Amino acid sequence: MKRFLLIVVAMSAAIVSLAQRPGVNFPLPQNPDTLRILAVGNSFSDDGTEYIPGLLEAAGIHNVVIARLYIGGCSLERHCREYEEGANDYIYYKSTDNKWETVSKNATILDGLRDEPWDIVTIQEVSNNSGTYETYQRWAPKLISIIRKEVTNPQASIVWHMTWAYASNSDHGAFKLYDKNQKVMYDSIVSCVTRTREDFNIPVIIPSGEAIQIARGTRLNNENRVPATSKVYQLTRDGFHLTRQHGRYIAACAWFETLIKPVLGKSVKGNPYLLEDTEYSITPKDARLCQKCAVKAVESFK
Questions:
Q1: Rounded to an integer, what distance in angstroms lies between the CA atom of residue 96 and that of residue 286?
Q2: Is the dihedral of CA 216, 217, 221, 225 positive or negative?
Q3: Rounded to an integer, what distance in angstroms lies between the CA atom of residue 48 and that of residue 246?
Q4: End-to-end CA gap in the chain
Q5: Using CA atoms, how far apart are residues 254 and 212, in angstroms rounded to an integer?
Q6: Three-state secondary structure of the chain
Q7: Crossing angle for the helix pair 208-215 and 246-255, nearest 10 degrees?
Q8: CATH classification of 32-300 is 3.40.50.1110, yes or no?
Q9: Rounded to whole angstroms, how far apart are CA atoms 52 and 56?
Q10: Residue 74: is it exposed, middle or buried by C-beta count within 10 angstroms (0-12/13-18/19+)?
Q11: Domain ranges of the chain
Q12: What is the pLDDT along the chain (302 residues), one digit of tens a residue?
């Protein structure tokens, strides 16, 4: 028995050591008793995850803990600096029974990372820099190292959240970095995410940005129905954050299809959730189209 315990301890230490080495990642878990997902991000991860509990409830799934730890406009660099300074600037939301609850409005990054033995931790770059690979190169490895050091599950899978390009009429100050051209920004994001997958060994991508871009080519896009000066344009509510109806729903479907389907075996396709518990309910026809856009995006990034 003593020898067996020594072997177990040695194996555990080896796993921790391996997990903390640069470039090491782990696959998504398979059929865990409880699936635990933490999104470390900013308001774009807030947009992307808002409707996941509703989709889970509609799918009859009650064994997922999902949380979002975010600061509005937070970059990879700032996450690293928040860690170094021990600052408590994060808002921490968590869903344990398919309903969001506020854990803290003055959390540290460690409060989130150490709260649960997370199976999946998602990261992303701030929208300003989403198409600027130099910021990925400099700060993504540092944030990954922090996560590896501090999470209590040494085999957690680190996943990348691909965000979306701004609406073509966006007045966001950073849009000039992309010549105020949505396609330039979209192509830059795709290039950065593709390189990130290879350079940092992050094979799983949540393609919210791809799903939104696909949806912009469907009737869900409102550019022909509202003035080009409208803030609510091309699935955004202000030129960059997603609309609280179809935009957020599409992104949540992309998260669901990327993380829930391969782990728990249920696709978002055919999910009956129609945002009835919000003031932004959608039709079954629109829900099917949103789901189709998300599934297509996920397929393209496999």
A1: 28
A2: positive
A3: 11
A4: 44
A5: 9
A6: CHHHHHHHHHHHHHHHHHHCCCCCCCCCCCCCCCEEEEEEECHHHHHHHCCHHHHHHHCCCCCEEEEEEECCCCCHHHHHHHHHHCCCCEEEEEECCCCEEEEEEEECHHHHHCCCCCCEEEECCCHHHCCCHHHHHHHHHHHHHHHHHHCCCCCCEEEEEECCCCCCCCCCHHHHHHCCCHHHHHHHHHHHHHHHHHHCCCCCEEEHHHHHHHHCCCCCCCCCCCCCCCCCECCECCCCCECCCHHHHHHHHHHHHHHHHHHHCCCCCCCCCCCCCCCCCCCHHHHHHHHHHHHHHHHHCC
A7: 140
A8: yes
A9: 6
A10: buried
A11: 32-300
A12: 545 444 433 344 434 444 444 589 999 999 999 999 999 999 999 999 999 999 999 999 999 999 999 999 999 999 999 999 999 999 999 999 999 999 999 999 999 999 999 999 999 999 999 999 999 999 999 999 999 999 999 999 999 999 999 999 999 999 999 999 999 999 999 999 999 999 999 999 999 999 999 999 999 998 888 888 899 999 999 999 999 999 999 999 999 999 999 999 999 999 999 999 999 999 999 999 999 999 999 999 98
For the chain, how many residues are written?
Answer: 302
